[in-house]
TrEMBL record:
Pfam families: LacI, Peripla_BP_1
Keyword Magnesium annotated: no
Gene3D superfamilies linked to this entry: 3.40.50.2300, lambda repressor-like DNA-binding domains
UniProt name for this protein: Alanine racemase
Keywords carried by this UniProt record: DNA-binding, Transcription, Transcription regulation
Gene Ontology molecular function terms on file: DNA-binding transcription factor activity; transcription cis-regulatory region binding
Database matches in InterPro entries: HTH_LacI, Lambda_DNA-bd_dom_sf, Peripla_BP/Lac1_sug-bd_dom, Peripla_BP_I
HTH lacI-type domain ranges (all copies): 5-59
PANTHER family named in the record: HTH-TYPE TRANSCRIPTIONAL REGULATOR GALS, LACI-RELATED TRANSCRIPTIONAL REPRESSOR
Amino acid sequence: MHNDLTLKDIAKIANVSVATVSRVLNNLGGYSEETRKKVLKVIDEYGYRRNAAARNLKTKKSNTVAVLLPQVETTYYITILNGIGDAAQQNGYSVLVCHVGASGSRTKEYMNVLGEQRVDGIIGCSLPPNEEIDSLMANSYIPSVLVSTLSYNYTIPYVKVDDYKAEYEATNYLIKKGHRNIAFLSGPISDVVAGMPRLQGYKQALEDNHIPFREELVAYTSFSFETGIRAFKEILSRNVDFTAVVACCDDVAAATLSVGYKQGLTVPHDFSVIGFDNTRISEMTVPPLTTIAQPLYEMGTTAFNMLLYEIETGVKPKSQIIPFEIVERQSVKKLR
């Protein structure tokens, strides 16, 4: 029985549900410490290990999951993908990466192909908010999970940070350092997942500290270095006083350093800047960026484990909000 032990067998021996066994195996929580020990004891005693080949023969599964990515040019996506890939390998799965385009325009085409190839699950990574994309994933009958994004209209489990709270804390951090004239390089306001919530977090932090919101201190980007350059040049062209910049992502924060350098401005002497994501670029700039750190690798592993839970049990996992933190480096100056 040892080599053929299934989740159902473990559940019966431990007197728990199959879903509970899967949650313990995938470290998803939702059970007591006593239950965890009981399940692990059965696994240890009976020598259970996932056998991909045997499972494929019984279930006709491919042991392949697909990851839909809008782009792969920054370490933001690469770090999440590394987390997904490592978790997949540990569980006997292969990963198929699908580049759906920055706007997600190729999603429908890929969804048709993935259905034909019988992938076991789909992870949508930082996909732009789009009704058609959400509908395709929700109605595909293939277990799906979102990472660093969410759907407001469909029940698709997701894992992400609280964008509103994170940008609130970034702005509040600068305020505590004595800054009151704070510019904001925002994502697009049409982006209800990250763009608008981060802008709202910035505004609320100003309001809570009795600092008037000034529209002339805000410019909009598409979360890229190139649009960050245009946006920061726009702020400078308005000749408004500011001592600090909140950037919607590290690439945009890096753009402020580049534009500032060409204008004879240095960070943090002439202005301070805080980024968002804690990608590799935040460590590579001069000076290194203070930034909001998303645990990108952990988000990737969590997304895969949530997906595996649904694949094995047929039950949708609960969505998860992952904690963030502020990583202090050398791009912010204290004014008082």
